[in-house]
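FORM 7B: Structural annotation worksheet

SECTION A. Query
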Amino acid sequence: MTEATRIKNMPIGEAVGLADLVSYAPGQVVSRTLAQNERMSITLFALDAGEAISTHITNGDALVVVLDGEVLLEIGDARVPTACGQATVMPSGVPHALYAEQRFKMLLMVVK
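SECTION B. Predicted structure
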């Protein structure tokens, strides 16, 4: 296993609350990459109320798992509210965006 395939930026061998690994910052989108290689990426995000990730397309399926708060996902023409404890898949090749109507934290996994 190469260094690029390992999980980083979190304790190894101990239980942690994922939401505790990323903090809110006023007027900002904060991220913490846990793993990234040519096949997938795993990133934690904290978005303050009013922040967004603009419309884009990914070359992999994206799984959003909400850890705190609620997010409004726009997937193609659909608007999908997703709350704490829920998950939504945004398929590869379909334009999507995220809107923080209230602050929220998520785990984002993109599988290519």
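SECTION C. Observations
The mean pLDDT is 95. The beta strands are 29-36, 40-47, 52-56, 61-68, 70-75, 78-83, 87-90, 96-99, 104-111.

SECTION D. Sign-off
Analyst initials: ____
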